[in-house]
Request: fold
Amino acid sequence: MRKLLKYILYFLFCAGNTFLLLAEDKEDSLRKYDASVVEEVISLFHTSLGFDYLTKEESDSLNIAGLLTFLDDSKQYKSYFEFERILIKSYLFRGEVRMAIAQSEQMYSKSRVLSYPLGDALALNALGEVYTYTGRYKEAGIAYERALDILDRMKGEDVHIRMLLVELINYKILIQDKGAAGHYISRLNSYPENQISVQELAIRHITNAQYQLFRNNVEAARQHLNQIEKIRMQLIPGIQQFLFIVNARYLVAIEDFEKALEEYDKFLQTEYSQGDQNIYKETLHERADLLVKMGRKEDAYKQLGKLFSFIKSSFDKNYPKEIEQLSTRFQADQLAYQNEHDRLVSMRFYLAGIVLCSILLILFLFLSWKKIFYLRRSVQRQEAMKLKAKSAIQRKNLFLSNMSHEVRTPLNAIVGFSAVLTSDDETFDDESRQEFCEIIKVNSFQLLKLINDILDFSDFENDNITFHIQPYDAVKLCNEVVETVVASRKLQVEMRFDTELTELMIDTDDTRLRQVLINLLVNATKFTEKGSIILNLKLTDNDTALFSVTDTGCGVPLEKQQLIFERFEKLNDFVQGTGLGLSICRLIVDYMNGKIWVDNQYKDGARFCFTHPLKHNSENPQT
Reply:
């Protein structure tokens, strides 16, 4: 007995395992089947932009509740919400408003709980359709706009945007909003044709034709309808039946009433005519209006009676109180959404205000710092100007002092010796009188040079100096300068001109160049008591001549070599001169695009050097 019981338990165990394995295999195959069916339904729905919906028979055969449970349990939320969206549209097409409302409420609640953006967008899209179907156009517009706003912020959802645009265009036409309808038409037409299906292309042309008829542009509407005729045989029944209605509306617009009536009748005779009860009601109403235009008032009366009966039965059956509950809930959620939106807008304004205030504060600090910086610079400039003015006053005083001494000394000599020469005193012989004349001559020359230096410097300061540039032979000019200085002064030292050049043509003002050479040579005579003074000329390169005046005098101290060319600077205050000669030399040499300096390598006296370009460039003077 115990053995028999053991075998029975073993058999039951094996049978149970086999049954479980078979059940798991069946469940796996069912899941695979469910997933493929859902993908197929969603794909067809996308391809047709929502016109390929589920019939009553298809819904019953798919086990809708099981499919939704499976998708929810497996967290396939994208497929879950897309499938619910298809169900709601299918319920509306079939006139099952109660089911559409219930499914919309369920879908909207679940999307809010999950905080799933695509679910929110699809649920709002479905709500917009429900509100449109039940005549709540204000709520429909809000739902549609919110759905589009969510989808626009997402990537890769173009097909949902295009479906929503078609619904928005029809909605805007329904409420007579031409501007908004045109805006959405432009968005719909912006998608390239090679990226959409044949069914979607047909829907686009049908929607464009409706919009053009709405604008009373029948020619443009006809062009879109002609495009549809090329692909009409490839269209699904849901799109073809809608095409009958659009064709009929076009024929009414061109007043071809008989053909329009035929198109309406073609639609009413199709097996899908009552699939979309909203379109069916619109068609009955439009057909009745057409019969009135054709003068067939009795037939129009019968048509209106049929329409009234259909609307009454549909209203009693399908316009439940649930729509009020759904509307109340949506409005409460819309209020919360609006409050959140207002809060975000306020936060943005506050943030913008803070940023603006920060920018203004930074700008204020920057401008304040800049002003302080400019004030400091201004104070520094004022201090510099004060020092400059003080220095100028000192220089002016020094200049006046020098001028007083330098002018008075030769003038006293000229006046004194002139008085002696003109007196009747006969104690002076001819030799003495000749010596007096020589003294008057030297002092006159000194006074003339002093006045010329002052005038030249004034001309340079006022930019009133003129140069007459012409080709001259520098070798000849140097020889003449040396002869002039030797002849005009009683020299105790040798003065000569040395060069290896026989001729050197340069572009210069010979008067100004002579002035520089004479100044340098005369200056050398003042500080050279023995030895020699040598003027030298040579080429440093093919474009520049180098002049130098070398003496064996006391030389120029190193600390004075940078200052010697400044105005009123004198090497020895007890030697005659204003301190303007070398400064004028520098101004002339700079104007000729040359350079002047003291050779600090020469230790046996002083050597002044300056360069002079062979060709003068008048566009680039260094003054």
